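Hi all, a correction to my earlier message: I attached the wrong file for ABC transporter. Here's the right sequence:
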Amino acid sequence: MSQAQLGTDRRGAASVTTTGTYTPKPGAAPLPRMIRAQAALETRMLLRNGEQLLLTVVIPTLLLVLFSSADIIDTGPGEAVDFLAPGILALAVMSTAFTGQAIATGFERRYGVLKRLAASPLPRWGLMTAKTASVLVTEILQVILLTSIAFALGWSPHGNPLAVLLLLALGTAAFSGLGLLMAGTLKAEATLAAANLVFLLLLVGGGVIVPLDKFPAGAQDVLGLLPVSALSDGLRAVLQHGAQMPWGDLGILAVWAVVGLGAAGRFFRWE
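and the right structure:
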């Protein structure tokens, strides 16, 4: 090839490079794409975390299988799984939206991850939206797994599906607000200890596996106002007893959601 031809080829290549489809276009990606990418990252991180999987998958599954198969606690008339399945679904929502989210967000705040993300083109409300989407994706996977296991154990649910979805949505909002409030105001180590302690206390006293009527009358009135009690009781009223819309439990969850999300928005510190 001659020098003239080589020069022509080089000029032609330069022209293609200049006017081709790979011209740089600096700037932030569209907001929906940023939120989707952050939500996918949050979900992958959650599913790869051994402690998170223990809270969100292993513990609820073991409790459902163990207490449904062995006569350990008197759950009243009917099959034990009919009482336990709604409570375990409530526990799954709490473990993901409250315990897991509080711990993960608390350590992200400690290590400066939230501070750096807050300086990115993704707005802070977009980051919270991505975290919420990650929680919802995880909860969908939990519900599919736990309901499949419950059906295998002989569960026979009935009731209004719309009421179930509304209960789960309000329960998620309530627990997310409380989890973000804890993660945004306490140190990471304190959040870790407090979130796990609250998880254990509500597991025992929130009507998840032990009926509230097993507690003293005075304690029942107080425990019934807890978000996990309202969620498990509402799911049980619909799925076990066929109630159309448990307005009392929905009201309790709505109050917790408003208070929790409002307080998290007011007091959350990013660093």
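Sorry for the mix-up. The chain has one domain: 31-267.
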